[in-house]
Amino acid sequence: MSLYTLTAEKQQVLDMVRDFCKNEIAPVASELEHADEYPHAIVEKMKELGFFGLTIPERYGGFAIDYVTYALIIEEITRHWMSVAGILNSHLIMAYIVEKYGIEEQKMTFLPKFATGECRGGLALSEAEAGTDVQNISTKATLNGDHYIVNGSKMFITNARYGNTFILAAKTNSKIEPRYKGISLFIIQKGNDGFYVQRDIEKLGYKGVKTCEITFENFRVPSNQLIGGEEGKGFKQVLGGLELGRVNVAARGVGLARAAFEDSIKYAQERKTFGVPICEHQAIQLKLGDMGTKLEAARLLTLNAATKLQNGERSDLEAGMAKLFATEAGFELASEGMRIHGGYGYTKEFNIERYYRDSPLMLIGEGTNEMQKIIISKSLVEKYKI
After folding, report:
1. Are 100 and 131 part of one and the same domain?
2. What pLDDT score does 2 carry?
3. pLDDT over 90 (residue 5)
4. At which of 81, 116, 151 does a domain end?
5. How many domains is the chain built from?
6. Are 363 and 292 found together in one domain?
7. What is the pLDDT of residues 155-197, one digit of tens each?
8. Structural domain includes residue 135
9. Fewest CB atoms within 10 A around its CB: which of 91, 234, 268, 317?
10. Domain boundaries, position 157
11. What is the CATH number of the domain that holds 127?
């Protein structure tokens, strides 16, 4: 943690988030998570405190915090309950895309409402046959006068049940080659006919936050809600948004790794076997040493990617590396933490079983880690091209 320092103002924001997590999330996280209950009260408190405007520029009513502080905030929230970070992250990626690619009218209309949480939501991107392969989406948007008519369906959409505003990826040209040139992004809102939130998808972990299937049947979207005002730019806009997305997923990986490590090192000092705390057994010491090192490495990779993003530099390589390493660390440390907890780790009396169930999602979200390795490799070959 010595490679960066926070100003007094940024530290004050992080301290506020830590207090919020300890007072509002920690006491109820286990109960709500096991009941798979949406944290309505937590979300309302987040709205009051301005969480939904954390990264939105001040001129649009947000706090405009830098991405390093943002990554630390996401780590802190995830350390207490990853689902709450998911509710916030999907929303802020949506805001980031509008801020970066929207025309001024779209920014003025939506960003202030995003900042207050009046309009909340996320990305309507994935489909049953199009996850990592974004260009394979089949949802179509056809221009008809001053509206687009949308037909299709989306799968695994975070915030679909209780959110009201989303960025939709749809094909506005299904014949063009390469196929990604036919993708456009739209700002869509609930309220008009043809927008249907279907079933809540039951999941291994990531509970509380509702992940749903949604369908569109002749759903009308005003043409002035085409992001950027020009068709065919959606694929590039999605990739731009995923730079922030991968930083926040990496930060969630760090948060899970930290939760598993902190719970484990505390338990290892309290639990005794053969007359001594288990932290004095070499087998446990080897695990703790490895866990602490990987946690620190994951955090530094994540903050490096966040710094490059904040500086306006291209950060796809660094964000990909951070996402890959930090999420694998979260998965590994959750597993090692369960081993350290022994039989108790397999019960619902300790939080380690929740970390164990939550961690696999990060290996898949924002692009699978297998795909990340391919992207990283191609970027490295380009960087070191002979």
Report:
1. no
2. 56
3. no
4. 116
5. 3
6. yes
7. 999 999 999 999 999 999 999 999 999 999 999 999 989 999 9
8. yes
9. 317
10. 122-232
11. 2.40.110.10
Question: 217, 232, 247: which is the final residue of a domain?
Answer: 232
For residue 386, CA distances in Å to 196, 209, 314, 318 come to 52, 47, 21, 21
| Choice among 177, 243, 366, 370 that is catalytic | 366
* Position 2 in a domain: no
Q: Tokens 């039951």 appear where?
A: 202
Amino acid 367: pLDDT:
84
pLDDT at 298 over 90: yes
At 242, the pLDDT band (50, 70, 90 cuts) reads confident
Cα 293 from chain centroid?
A: 24
Cβ atoms of 96 and 185 closer than 8 Å: no
| Ramachandran region, residue 290 (left: φ > 0; alpha: ψ -120 to 50; beta: rest) | alpha
For range 360-379, the mean pLDDT: 93
366 is an active site residue: yes
**Residues, the chain, total?**
386
Residues 6+ apart with CB under 8 A from 118: none
